[in-house]
Design goal:
Jelly Rolls; seven-stranded mixed β-sheet; 24% helix; globular; alpha+beta; 168 residues
């Protein structure tokens, strides 16, 4: 019958426990990073001219697939006058949802010429209901719910910013 060295057996058991703890910690850190509110890579300003005046928004720019997929998910707050601008690079139909989005938002769908195509007001947090642009758009501006009504922003209003071309 082989003999067991108690000191060696104890060392091996503790090493395995340490490895499991290290792996668990690494996985936990990776999940925290993945679930943390990501910020878009760029920043900018857009202005909307409505019947009540010109309204400026400080925006995070979502310009690639990963940033557009993440959007404002997992955010707990969005200051008034701030938002996220999703740039699709060219006009195309767009559909959004509020999955994992904790804040109620207004979604402003904007054509490439800078005219607002449509607005989805007060989108419900955490909803998987699809929100359609109603036709081709170049971009979508997400702002705090109630902003469109408060500022009198409507379909047809002009949006200016570096991604919008001049035109009708």
């Amino acid at each position: 019958m082989p003999s067991i060295d108690p000191l060696r057996h104890s060392f091996t058991r503790h090493s395995a426990t340490r490895r499991v703890a290290a792996i668990t910690l690494a996985i936990g850190c990776a999940l925290l990073i993945a679930l943390a509110p990501a910020r878009a890579s760029g920043r900018g300003t857009v202005k909307i001219t409505s019947r009540s005046g010109v309204h400026s928004f400080s925006v995070e720019l979502a310009t690639n697939d990963a940033e557009r997929a993440r959007g404002l998910m997992f955010r707990k707050e969005l200051p008034e006058g701030h938002g996220m601008l999703f740039d699709f690079k060219h006009d195309q139909p767009a559909t959004f949802w509020m999955h994992n989005t904790y804040i109620s938002l207004d979604l402003i769908f904007i054509r490439g010429n800078g005219r607002i195509r449509s607005i989805a007001e007060n989108a419900h947090p955490m909803s998987d209901a699809l929100i359609s642009s109603g036709g081709p758009v170049r971009a979508v501006l997400e702002v705090l719910a109630g902003t469109a009504q408060k500022l009198g922003i409507a379909s047809g209003d002009r949006v200016t910013g570096s991604i919008f071309r001049k035109g009708h």
